[in-house]
Amino acid sequence: MKRIFVLLFMLTAVMFALAACSSSEEKTSGTGTDKTTADNKSTDKEKLIIGIDDKFAPMGFRDDKNEIVGFDIDLARAAAEHMGVEAEFQPIDWKTKEAELISGRIDLIWNGYTITDERKEKVLFTKPYLENAQAVMILKESSIKELKDLAGKEVGLQSQSSAADALNENPINKEIKTVTEFGDNVLALTDLKTGRVDAVIIDSVVAEYYMTKEPDTFKLLDESLAPEQYGVGVKPGNEALLEKLQAALDKMNEDGTSAEISTKWFGEDKVLK
Questions:
Q1: Phi and psi for 68 in degrees, rounded to 5?
Q2: What three-state secondary structure class fits 179?
Q3: Looking at residues 159-169, what average pLDDT do you find?
Q4: Cβ-based neighbours of 82, under 8 Å, separated by 6 or more
Q5: Per-residue pLDDT averaged across 225-230, rounded?
Q6: Where in the chain is the domain with CATH 3.40.190.10?
Q7: Which pLDDT tens digit goes with each residue over 6-34?
């Protein structure tokens, strides 16, 4: 009798264990489904992390209250609103901007980002939204009048910027005494004011902004080095985000949002349609 009781107990224990395993598998299966759903939802971002150079006025910079402001900042916020997401701005080292994007630490490069053939091999670009050129900024009292006068002079520019490409493509680069690269344009212009460099190669939209702030300090040469266009950089393979962003930018052109932002910062509508 005792033996029968033991056998019945063991049989009951086995059945209970099997039932528990079955229940566990169902829960695991259910959890897996929930995880897949969560992963799918995570592809629809609620926030876009936008990499910027926070010393690139008037595109993106810090104001007197240390708040990030600028033309590109307003444009990005408006685009994010059209997309139904939030824009968060992440200051980055401009020298590593593509690495930041490809690693996924940021979703977009959006701060006076010039479209070049070399960059097209690394990132996806929106359609151009603003014209620009690389200009030569000098002090008001400078004896430099033309590009050829840069021969034997010391020139500054922002590291890993399109200014370096523009200068390298111009024959005058072989006659320049030295080229000094700076972390940002603010540092380059500081050295220009103190005489440590004779000229700075800089985006014309940036140069024009600083000339309005210090009209008695700077001037530009009539000749520019290279015309160029700004675009927004998107991580390769993320065509879905690129399409959504471009649709938002197109809509902003249609409804007048981009024109309003441009007029605020430049006094006129300069956005490419």
A1: -80, 120
A2: strand
A3: 93
A4: 248, 251, 252, 257
A5: 94
A6: 47-129+231-266, 132-228
A7: 444 444 444 444 444 444 433 333 333 33
* CATH fold of 47-129+231-266: D-Maltodextrin-Binding Protein; domain 2 (3.40.190)
What phi and psi, each to the nearest 5 degrees, are found at residue 97?
-60, -45
Q: Which of 185, 205, 233, 262 is nearest to 48 (CA)?
A: 233
Q: What are phi and psi of 15, to 5 degrees?
A: -65, -40
- Residue-wise pLDDT for 39-93, tens only, equals 333 346 789 999 999 999 999 999 999 999 999 999 999 999 999 999 999 999 9
Residue 46: how many other CB atoms lie within 10 Å: 9
Give the global pTM: 0.79
Q: Give the pairing of strands 108-109 and 47-52.
A: parallel
Classify domain 132-228 by CATH architecture.
3-Layer(aba) Sandwich (3.40)
* pLDDT tens column, 192-214: 999 999 999 999 999 999 999 99
